[in-house]
Amino acid sequence: MAHNRKTLIVGSGCFGLSTALELLKRGWTDVTVIDRATTLPAPDGASNDFNRIVRTSYPDPFYSKLAQDAIASWKNRDEWDDAYHESGVLVLGPRASDVDYAHKSYLNDLEMGLRVVLLEQTAIGQVFPPGTDVGSLSHLKGYLNRDGGWANAGQGVSILMKKVTALNGKIIAGKTAAELIQQGQKTTGVRCSDETVFEADLVVLATGSWTGSAFPNAGNIFQATGHCIAMVQLTKEEGNRYRQCPVVLDFESGFYIFPPNDQNLVKMAVHAAGYTHTGANHISTPRTITSDPETGLLIPRANAKELRNGLRMVYPGLADKPFVATRLCWYCDSRDGDWVIGYHPQSDKSLVLATGGSGHAYKFLPVIGRLVADAIDDKLSPDLVAKFAVDRTPNQPDESRLGRVVHELDLTQLCKPADLQ
């Protein structure tokens, strides 16, 4: 059924584009996506990178099942080409615990009938291909989930953009939303920093880590946090040797590392609480290569050392390679790790939030727009309405980052060239 409600989606990342595609599939005829970046996919957006983990391994069955649906879609090469790589995911946790994130995730994956191999009685190193130099990892336990891997994030977003435009959706780059236009409780559009006005019957804020700073009245259950990433360059021979390795994800330390991509780059990061970057308004705002071209990619030197230690723990033979690149990847972190999807409670059903990815939304790129579209259509189940509500009391702590504390970014502690060696 055709739906001619004029819809403006602010943000062309995972949430924004997936929502646009789903609405167009449902017969909506006037859908426009705008983005602050002049080049798309946005070079500093969380949805644009050469890899993101794709896993079903969650203690929450909702996310596990949704990820299973997403992976089924990712595997369809007619839809997503070769963006998805099923390398397997090695999920690790503390040896002394039977109630940790990793173990509860294993029970969910097992319940869903996935191809999982418990490694309590098997040396973890046996899941890696011959010839790779792997640390003992004897202080950890875990399991290999063969039904997972990683996706080329930038490629996935580019494919999604083409899908949106093929259904006559409009995507406009270089438009930075400055304020919502409102009449009482009704949102009627967006004014951009260049004074362009986009009128709309429905506005969807899918602005990721920029949501809090761009729209300070949108809610207080989320904030922008920066997370540290580093890369090493392998030789062609090394790349071939390590290419069939699984993604390694250690929930005890938060360290994770990918197999090399086609350019023989290996990316690693730490899933932690991250850094805030607050200004005079006390609202955390992303600091990226766009806002700070000279130093926007640098990470704190303490985190460079932490990443080096993680690399040495997993792949000691690669641990002396210099970091050829670093960056802070900015998330929109909710206070409980659940997403923020639904009508703003004071919007007269004219303003929707689709954000709060909390570092684990991208893998759901093929399906996450269904949740937003269901919320718009008032078809979301009551439990999910409550789970994702803009004005909810946080449901519970984010289990994947228990005990980790957010710190304010100290610009005097950013790494120097010597710290990358």
UniProtKB/TrEMBL annotation:
InterPro entries: FAD-dep_OxRdtase (IPR006076), FAD/NAD-bd_sf (IPR036188), MTOX (IPR045170). Its cofactor is FAD. GO terms for molecular function: flavin adenine dinucleotide binding; L-pipecolate oxidase activity; proline dehydrogenase activity; sarcosine oxidase activity. Coiled coil: none annotated. It comes from the Eukaryota. Residues 7-374 form the FAD dependent oxidoreductase domain. Belongs to the MSOX/MTOX family. This is FAD dependent oxidoreductase. It comes from Mycena rosella.
